[in-house]
Amino acid sequence: MKLPQNSSEFNEYSYFVTPSDMIEFTYCRRYTYFMKVLNILQHEEKRYNVRKGREIHKIRESQNIQYIRKKIPMVSKEINVNLISEKYKIRGIIDEILTMNDNTLSPLDYKFTNYNSKTYKTHKIQSTMYSLMIEDLYNKPVNYGYIIYCKDKNVLKEIKISEKLRTETLESINSYMEVLKGKYPEATKYERRCLDCCYKNICPR
């Protein structure tokens, strides 16, 4: 695997977008503007799902480390892998990187939420960002990503990492960078998302 932290290309002062950044941006672009441009904190550490999700990740790091899932055609895995891609300006910690039986790789992520009969766009983009980093740093193809929904009896879902999804993800990262430079974005068109938003009192819809 290529290690950009040790390469002459790595610039510690560059900005690297994380999958968590993109989940919030995809949910509502104005959310990113308030938090990253105006530096108004969201205090996510007070939210139950965030705290519970972090507890689950710690447990997964210490239990069943060598466990091979029978429902996935895999032969081995790495857990809690910290990656930085200079090429895509992405960084993040991947819960598991699976080596598949066809010698491709796949990211696997745990979500402390229900499945709700569909895989949300935010989860697809997160999995695609992990895939881009893996392909860049391991120099191996990624065809699928996997998500386990812990609140729904550990339902396992597969995401096809298509060229369309790669293109959409890279376009979203470019749009994210434009907002960081000061571009004021439109609010989400889904007003129901505003009900539980920590910025609803200052956001002029």
Topology:
Elements: H1 19-27, H2 29-37, H3 48-62, E1 74-85, E2 90-100, E3 105-111, H4 121-138, E4 144-149, E5 155-160, H5 163-180
Parallel strand pairs: 3-4
Antiparallel strand pairs: 1-2, 2-3, 4-5
Helix pairs in contact: 1-2, 1-4, 4-5
Pfam family, one: Cas_Cas4
GO molecular function: exonuclease activity; iron-sulfur cluster binding; metal ion binding
GO biological process, one term: defense response to virus
Polypeptide structure, described:
This protein has 205 residues and is an alpha+beta fold. It has a single domain (19-64, 71-194), classed as Lambda Exonuclease, Chain A. The protein is 34% helix and 20% strand. The protein has five helices and five strands. It has helices spanning 19-27, 29-37, 48-62, 121-138, 163-180; strands at residues 74-85, 90-100, 105-111, 144-149, 155-160. A five-stranded mixed sheet has the order 1-2-3-4-5. Strand 4 and strand 5 (155-160) form a beta hairpin. Helix 1 packs across helix 2 (29-37), helix 1 packs antiparallel against helix 4 and helix 4 (121-138) packs across helix 5 (163-180). It is globular. Residues 4-8 have low confidence and may be disordered.
